């Protein structure tokens, strides 16, 4: 009986020390396979974003998310993502530069700043604002293009050139990410650029209308204004030009000393024909240098 007890204890001890086989469920993993891509990606590539192989078919420089990053780093297009104050400073710098070196000098050829400061300023401002509007339009087109690609469910791309274009349908993960970027990053920039365009268009229209009204009000009888305009008021007769309202006929100057003095004062000691381009050309433009100044 003692031997039987020993055999039982040894049997139980052997069973407890024998290795036990436990069946475990296989590890379930998510592997995303894209066309022309490996079956898995490295851990480093998976950190901080989506699986890069979801977009492996599209070249890196044509992926909307990368194009958005390029916009933010571009010297010009990055203006759209700046804060409102810094953004307006950049545009003001463009306006000041083109007014000082292009718009102002061109306006000076027509308007004398000391005698016609408002006309000179409005003329130079009109030209500078046109340049500002062109710059904003260029920035808007770039952001609008990238925004459309971000919000679209499918985007065209080129593998090597224009002759092998393809259409990439975004996976759900990529589409969700792109639409979030397009909604919360691109759309606010486009709204700001549209407001700038509307504001610059309104200011440009106002300056143009005001300048046009000043020119029409101050134009001479021939429609000329500025440095090339004749002195007004004046009377262009068949045989000459009169400037004094007291004189109605050139023959009156030969018999009336007071009328002659009034006419001389009105002419500013400059021959009367200098105020009319046709008579001035006929006389050869002599003695008109003082009138030109």
Automatic annotation (TrEMBL):
Among InterPro entries, the record links this protein to:
CGLD27-like (IPR009631)
Q: Does the keyword Nucleotide-binding apply?
A: no
Where is it chiefly localized?
Answer: plastid
By its UniProt entry, which PANTHER family does this protein fall under?
A: PROTEIN CONSERVED IN THE GREEN LINEAGE AND DIATOMS 27, CHLOROPLASTIC, PTHR34214
The entry's protein name is Uncharacterized protein
The protein's location, in the record's own words, is: Plastid
A Pfam family matched by this chain, by name? CGLD27-like
One GO location term (cellular component): plastid
Q: Which UniProt keywords apply?
A: Membrane, Plastid, Transmembrane, Transmembrane helix
TM spans, by residue? 91-108, 120-141, 197-215
């Amino acid at each position: 009986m003692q031997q039987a007890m020993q055999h039982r204890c040894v049997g139980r001890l052997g069973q407890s020390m024998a290795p036990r086989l436990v069946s475990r469920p296989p590890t379930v993993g998510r592997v995303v396979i894209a066309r022309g891509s490996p079956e898995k990606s490295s851990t480093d590539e998976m950190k901080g974003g989506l699986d890069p192989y979801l977009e492996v078919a599209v070249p890196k420089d044509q992926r909307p998310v990368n194009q958005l990053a390029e916009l933010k780093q571009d010297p010009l297009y990055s203006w759209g993502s700046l804060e409102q104050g810094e953004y307006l400073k950049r545009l003001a710098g463009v306006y000041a530069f083109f007014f000082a070196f292009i718009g102002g000098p061109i306006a000076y050829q027509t308007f004398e700043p000391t005698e016609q400061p408002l006309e000179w300023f409005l003329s130079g401002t009109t030209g500078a604002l046109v340049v500002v509007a062109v710059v904003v339009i260029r920035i808007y087109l770039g952001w609008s293009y990238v925004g459309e690609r971000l919000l679209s469910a499918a985007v065209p791309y080129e593998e090597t050139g224009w002759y092998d274009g393809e259409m990439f349908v975004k996976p759900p993960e990529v589409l969700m990410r792109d639409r979030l970027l397009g909604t919360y990053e691109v759309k606010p920039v486009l709204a700001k650029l549209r407001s700038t365009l509307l504001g610059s268009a309104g200011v440009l229209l106002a300056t143009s209308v005001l300048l046009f009204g000043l020119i029409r009000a101050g134009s001479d009888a021939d429609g000329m204004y500025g440095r090339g305009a004749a002195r007004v008021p004046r009377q262009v007769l068949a045989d000459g030009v009169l400037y004094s309202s007291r004189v109605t006929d050139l023959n009156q100057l030969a018999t009336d000393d007071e009328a002659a003095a009034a006419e001389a004062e009105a002419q500013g000691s400059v021959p009367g024909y200098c105020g009319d381009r046709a008579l001035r050309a006929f006389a050869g433009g002599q003695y008109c240098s003082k009138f030109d100044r």
